[in-house]
Design brief:
The complex is a heterodimer of chains A (about 375) and B (about 150).
Chain A lengths: L1 E5 L3 H13 L1 H5 L4 E6 L3 E3 L3 H6 L9 E3 H4 L5 E4 L2 E5 L4 E4 L4 E3 L2 E4 L3 E3 L7 H4 L6 H13 L3 E7 L8 H15 L6 E6 L9 H14 L2 E3 L4 E5 L4 E4 L4 E3 L2 E5 L2 E3 L1 H5 L16 E2 L2 E6 L12 H21 L10 E6 L5 E6 L12 H18 L4
Chain B lengths: L7 H32 L2 H22 L2 H11 L1 H23 L7 H8 L2 H26 L4
The chains are: A alpha/beta (about 375), B mainly alpha (about 150).
Chain lengths: ~375, ~150
């Protein structure tokens, strides 16, 4: 049995390690072969980028060598997939190699596409890459006051990020003693301030309390960099001195190129996590088109289900679990308070009041992540 | 002589005293927790979490390392412990003797003289037997596919 995992991010790594543990004896006796193909030899803790943007973490804290996170029984190659041949159960890679499989797991993740909004690259700061997060921090350090606008592209990874960055901006300027010189305005594309209704209900009075203005139904159309104005599809506009953007995202180009899903999101069975029309192909994390958040947490819980099912199919011939849509998100409500949202397909989140203990739980998780991707937590 | 009876009022006083004591203890505990919370910082929490994370990973690797587990089983045997103890003593003795002996002069005569010593012959015999059994063990290892 040849299991091929494409993608070495959070979901792919947790899945591969979980499978390597469950199938240790099968791998040892060479009944199972587990291979991972990744685009990079480094693994990044992506939620840490928000902390880099506020000077709370250094970029080098976000990285580990991918191989050091993997079980030794996993064959690991830095060789991204260039084409999927699903009808022939094989993929071809950048180096020209072909990998055949019996079971394929696609966990290729997503990418930012700020260039799809005119002026967004030149006119805004963001924190969705290491370079961008460092640049944003330097810009914040230089900022002495004025209008700060936060705009949100769709779809985007980490749904909590827009409110987290807003709370962090408030605390950052407060700590610097210039909050009274800064006007913060939050813009959101739908008719309430967050896509998750209970998060919107919780965040609105918090925004009122800390003096953050908000405008809903604001889909970013373009940024007039010269005049420092951001315009919406709905016809409104906001003048800014500092524009912070959550850029829109897409799936990986190879998914779109091979016509496996619109926007790079693969149509996926919401319970089995198999690709529609392909029972031996599983999809994880951002790559799915599921109505759950594009977060490491969703990828984590999905990976556990897929690993258990692949292992049980090998051991007893049938899957044993369904994915219930579980997601657990920490929500940093500033520099020293946090809460969390846990939800699934059936149950919406029930947010508690933020506190310091939850903030430290999140700070701890920032370090415990490496234990998590190794398949231990 | 008078009979002592407990009035309901006395019972209530005792209950209040117990409640006050419990509240005092809870307050003490809360003060301790608050004090620990005030003493901590993001940096400390991160460092402790990092150490814990690495510790768990190390423990996991150690406990799932079959080679290490086999080695620990071997080390549990008194015979192995005695051998290691003996080896340690021999190494210490060797180190001391080398330190006080003059440097070797070299030449075939020296080799012949050394070879005639019973200790050298015992040593060569031990090394020969070690080689023999070690080779058997390595053949067995590769026969099983190196695992």
């Amino acid at each position: 049995m040849r299991i091929l995992v494409v993608g070495g991010g959070c979901g792919g790594t947790i899945l591969a390690n979980n499978l390597a543990r469950r199938l240790a004896s099968e791998i040892r006796s060479r009944k199972v072969r587990l291979t991972m193909l990744s685009a990079s030899d480094k693994h990044m803790y992506q939620p840490g980028l928000l902390y880099v943007a506020f000077g709370q973490m250094m970029p080098d804290e976000l990285y580990r060598d991918q191989e050091s996170l993997l079980e030794p029984s996993i064959e690991f190659h830095v060789d991204p997939v260039e084409a999927f041949h699903l009808d022939q159960n094989k993929v071809t890679t950048k180096s020209g190699k072909t990998h055949e499989y019996d079971v394929l797991v696609i966990a290729t993740g997503s990418r930012i596409v700020p260039e799809e909004v005119p002026g967004l690259v030149e006119g805004s700061e963001t924190f969705y890459s290491e370079a961008a997060a460092v640049k944003m921090f330097k810009r914040l350090r230089e900022f002495e006051g004025g209008n700060v606008a936060i705009v949100v592209g769709v779809p985007h990874k980490c749904p909590i990020a827009p409110v987290e960055v807003t709370f962090s901006l408030h605390d950052y300027f407060k700590i610097r003693g210039i909050r009274d010189k800064v006007h913060i305005k939050y813009h959101y594309p739908i008719g309430r301030i967050h896509t998750i209704e209970n998060v919107a209900k919780w965040a609105k009075p918090e925004f009122d309390r800390i003096g953050v203005e908000y405008e809903t139904l604001f889909n970013v159309k373009e940024v007039d960099v010269e005049n420092q104005v951001v315009k919406s599809e709905e016809g409104t506009e906001t003048a800014y001195d500092l524009l912070i953007s959550i850029p829109p995202h897409r799936g990986m180009p190879v998914i779109e190129r091979d016509q496996m899903g619109d926007g790079g999101w693969i149509p996926t069975d919401r319970y089995k996590l198999t690709m529609e029309g392909h029972d031996n192909v599983y999809v994880l994390g951002d790559t799915t088109n599921l109505p759950v958040s594009k977060t490491g947490s969703a990828a984590h819980f999905e990976a556990e289900v897929v690993a258990e099912n692949i292992a049980s199919i090998i051991k007893i011939g049938t899957p044993v679990r369904d994915y219930d849509g579980k997601v657990y998100c920490f929500i940093e409500a500033g520099h020293d308070r946090a809460t969390y949202a846990m939800f699934n397909y059936e149950n919406p989140p029930d947010l508690k009041a933020p506190n310091k203990s939850m903030h430290w739980f999140k700070m701890s998780y920032n370090k415990m992540y490496w234990t998590s991707v190794r398949g231990l937590l | 002589m008078t009979a002592q009876t407990e009035s309901p009022q006395t019972g209530a006083t005792v209950d209040r005293d117990e409640l006050a004591l419990e509240l005092e203890q809870l307050s003490e505990l809360a003060t301790l927790v608050l004090s620990a919370r005030d003493a901590l910082s993001d940096d400390i929490v991160s460092r402790v979490a990092s150490a814990l994370s690495e510790g768990i990973t190390l423990l996991d690797r150690l406990t799932r390392n079959e080679g290490l587990m086999r080695l620990l089983q071997v080390l549990d045997k008194p015979e192995t412990q005695h051998l290691l103890h003996g080896l340690s003593k021999a190494l210490a003795q060797m180190s001391r003797e080398i330190a006080i002996s003059p440097p070797a002069k070299g030449g075939l005569g020296g080799v012949v003289k050394l070879a005639m010593e019973p200790g050298t012959q015992e040593g060569l015999r031990s090394l020969s037997l070690l080689g023999k059994y070690w080779s058997d063990s390595m053949r067995e290892l590769h026969r099983k596919g190196g695992n």
